[in-house]
Write a structure and sequence with these properties.
GO molecular function: alpha-tubulin binding; microtubule plus-end binding
Number of helices: 4
Pfam families: CAP_GLY, Ubiquitin_2
Strand content: 25-35%
Organism: Brachionus calyciflorus
Number of strands: 14
Subcellular location: Cytoplasm
CATH architecture of one domain: Roll
Radius of gyration: 25 Å
Structural class: alpha+beta
Oligomer: single chain
Largest sheet: 5 strands, mixed
Protein name: CAP-Gly domain-containing protein
CATH class of one domain: Alpha Beta
CATH topology of one domain: Ubiquitin-like (UB roll)
Helix content: 10-25%
Order of helices and strands: EEHEEEEEHHHEEEEEEE
Shape: elongated
Strand order of the largest sheet: 2-1-5-3-4
Length: about 250
């Protein structure tokens, strides 16, 4: 009887992001590193103390997968893949004491940004000097690359909707959904949503709305016949409406 052995790569490329920040730093890590040692490596990058860290694994779309909360486990124990994100959440403490336990009657010592900048030997100065975290060249390059990609995506979406006409027949293809036929009813931006969208009135009740989003109407149709999708998922052409009454 032959034996089969599954071989996976020994390293994984992960982007570390701190709580509340949009961009992070991508680095290569060995899968056999223990989580506690992984946290120690992230201390200088994030400014959080390893003992107070919570690590959250996110996929390429930044959707939450799991918490990496067992310090004795190896990194490879968790479903890490190239391009995934590790969000570092730090406990809110002052000198190791939870904020909720600090006497509210004690006057806090605060510095303005200008006063803090004049001080020497601060964590910020240390990071700037060694080009760590958000002051690293890699971080700056990542930010610029993300901005370029975001702008290119917007320009592509704008170009695509520019080639679509209201009233055109179209086909909508989305991963995990059946192909739907319909009519283009709106092209442009949606209030509070990033990028550009195409409003479609479907031939069947396979949509999510009636042409309105968050109380604002963009076109008129029956409930569940309307939908808003990204331009790259819409193809305009000769897609005649199917006759559902045919036997």
């Amino acid at each position: 009887m032959s034996e089969f052995q599954v071989v996976t790569q020994s390293y994984v490329n992960l982007t570390t992001i701190s709580e509340g920040r949009e961009y992070g730093v991508e680095k290569r890590y060995p899968k056999d590193i223990k989580i506690i040692d992984f946290k120690n490596k992230l201390e200088m990058m994030t400014g959080f103390v390893s003992s107070g860290m919570t690590l959250r694994l996110l996929n390429k779309d930044r959707q939450f997968l799991c918490e990496m909360n067992d310090d004795d486990r190896m990194l490879g124990f968790y479903p890490c893949e190239d391009g995934y994100y590790v969000e570092v959440v730090g406990s809110k403490t002052v000198l190791g004491i939870p904020i909720g336990e600090i006497d509210p009657n004690v006057q806090k010592f605060e510095l303005t940004d200008e006063e803090y900048a004049k001080k020497r030997g601060t964590i910020k100065e240390f990071k700037q000097k060694l080009k760590l975290g958000q002051y690293s060249d890699q971080f700056a390059d990542t930010v610029h690359q993300k901005e370029r990609e975001k702008q290119e995506k917007l320009e592509k979406e704008k170009s695509l909707i520019g080639s679509m006409s209201i009233g055109s027949r179209c086909k909508v293809s989305l991963v995990g959904h059946p192909t739907r036929l319909g009519t283009v009813m709106y092209t442009g931006e949606l209030t509070g949503k990033p990028g550009y969208f195409v409003g479609v009135k479907y031939d069947e009740p396979l949509g999510k709305n009636d042409g309105s989003v968050d109380g604002k109407r963009y076109f008129q149709c029956s409930p569940n016949y309307g939908g808003f999708v990204k331009p790259e998922n819409v193809e305009c052409g000769d897609f005649p409406e199917e006759d559902f009454d045919e036997l």
